[in-house]
Amino acid sequence: MAVGWTPDARPAKAERASGTAPVKEKKAAPDVPVPQPGEWEAFVDPERQIFPSLLLASATVQPPVRGNEPEHPVPAGEAGREKKPPAAKVTASPALPADLPEVLGDDNGLIGVTLVSPADNAHVRVEVRENALMSDSVLEVDLPTCGKTYHLMPRVDYKYDALNRVRQSYPINVTVALQIDGKAAGQQLVTARVHPINDCPYAYQNPDDEKDYVDTAWMFAAYVNEDHPAIPTLLKEAQATGVVDGFDAYQAEDPGRVLLQVFAVWEALRQHNIKYSDIGTTTTESDSLYTLHVRFIEESLSESHANCVDASVMLASILRRMGLDSFLVLEPGHMFLGIYLDREGKQTACLETTMLGDPDPAKCAENRALAKVASHEVKQLKGWKCFNDALNSATKEYHKHLKRFKKDDDPEYEIIDIAAARREGIAPIGYVQSDGSVLPAAKN
Predict the structure, then answer these.
(1) How many distinct structural domains can be found in the chain?
(2) Are 158 and 195 part of one and the same domain?
(3) Is residue 444 in a domain?
(4) What is residue 75's predicted lDDT score, i.e. its pLDDT?
(5) Structure confidence by residue, pLDDT tens digits, 15-33
(6) With contact defined as beta carbons under 8 Å apart, do 421 and 320 qualify?
(7) Assuming Cys at both sites, which of 26, 81, 88, 394 could form a disulfide with 352, CB separation 3.0 to 4.6 Å?
């Protein structure tokens, strides 16, 4: 079992943005010697990989990510949002084996040691030594039972500003030292792979145990950044389209008015000539870690490319800044955006964001609520037919799989509510340049 990750749901069968997850052959259990009292091993989870995005996004999560089992979500558009759906569906974890190592220290930790206690009430000190990404971090604790295995994890003092500047993958040495009853037990060095900030780990599957699975799809909510410095300029561009004279969120209490504001943003983004790009490859080569490279807003704008995830989190970021709530809709190999059309979340619409750069379709059914409030001039804009097509396509897809979205044990079809993610402490990742400065807003 991977230390620091807990079984959470059955394995996802497909990648989020492209392709299908590799089929894993069942491995025979290796003949491993039984650890003896006093033996220990340092670890960096998952699989000697460090994801700055995960550490930044979950830094303020309460309760911890490990064992986090919030109430079951209410599917969007079914019963409103009175029950405050969580960031992602979570099923009850299976019963843990009685001999599973006990975790002491930071229950959400990913760095520490596994130790077989050499005596009853042994006093141990675990120290994670300072490096470029973390300061010295210490855990002192008593181990009650001789011969019992413990996972000991200090609360690591991460250097978050350094994590936020990682743009390329590189190796780093993590040194962990151990003392037992005041005597040095040595130190061990673990060479880990640091991932760039764009790498989003959204699932873990232990190749040796199909029950050892954790769904971290809530990580996508961290790439929604309503505070991004490019958004004010984008909103000015949206207002300049003439679609709306201002952004009043839900004040008009009219679903058509909400969609009209979204269309103004859509039209402004189309002027940036953003084309669909399926690129999402990361540096992870693993049969158990599922990751995706997610572009930040300024990267999508400057590169004029976005895949389904990039475009969905970009639009969600802008809408949240406008005061409109949204949710990410995940299905095998794909993501699109859901939009709440009223404050209570009882009415929803969905948007196929990959159609942002498509030419206008020859024929397209207009959304009735939107068509009622749009002027003749607005309906003549280049993006009008495409936007209606994107609404119809995604909303139809959403209702097609609604039963699966409502199931609590289906990690392939999920709804990630952005407002709920923020309530749980999942923070947006603020994209900065490698020198620590914030990038300028998008050009006019």
Answers:
(1) 2
(2) yes
(3) no
(4) 37
(5) 444 433 333 444 444 555 6
(6) no
(7) 394
The pTM of this model reads 0.83
The per-residue pLDDT for range 97-109, each reduced to its tens digit, is 456 789 999 988 9
Q: What is the pLDDT of residues 30-73, one digit of tens each?
A: 555 667 888 999 999 988 999 999 999 999 886 544 433 333 33
What are the CA-CA distances from residue 144 to residues 35, 76, 120, 282, 443 (Å)?
18, 47, 5, 43, 61
Query: Do 192 and 290 lie in a common domain?
Result: no
**Residue range of the domain that includes 125:** 40-210
pLDDT in tens, 380-400: 999 999 999 999 999 999 999
Reported as half-sphere exposure (CB side, CA atoms, 13 A), residue 42 has a value of 23
Per the CB < 8 A criterion, the answer to whether 311 and 215 are in contact is: no
The answer to whether position 181 is within a domain reads yes
Q: Is 428 within a domain?
A: no
Which amino acid would we find at residue 186? G
Q: What is the CA radius of gyration of the chain?
A: 24
Same domain, 176 and 302: no
Q: Does residue 290 share a domain with residue 186?
A: no
Q: Identify whether residues 187 and 264 lie together within a single domain.
A: no
| Whole-angstrom distance, CA of residue 282 vs CA of residue 195 | 8
Strand partners, 175: 189
Q: Cα–Cα distance between 60 and 429 in angstroms, integer? A: 12
Domain membership flag for residue 6: no
Question: Do 237 and 254 have their domain in common?
Answer: yes
- Which residue type, as a one-letter code, is found at position 146? C
Sheet holding 102-105, edge to edge: 40-44, 111-116, 149-153, 102-105
Half-sphere exposure (CA, 13 Å, Cβ side) for 47? 14
Cross-strand pairs, 349: 339
Non-local (6+) Cβ contacts of 179 within 8 A are 124, 125, 127, 185
Element (DSSP H or E) covering residue 139 = strand 137-143
Pairing of strands 305-306, 326-331: unpaired
SS3 349: strand
Identify whether residues 108 and 226 lie together within a single domain. Answer: no
- Give the HSE-up count for residue 71: Cα atoms under 13 Å, Cβ half-sphere: 10
Residues 188 and 260 in one domain: no
- pLDDT surpassing 90 at residue 264: yes
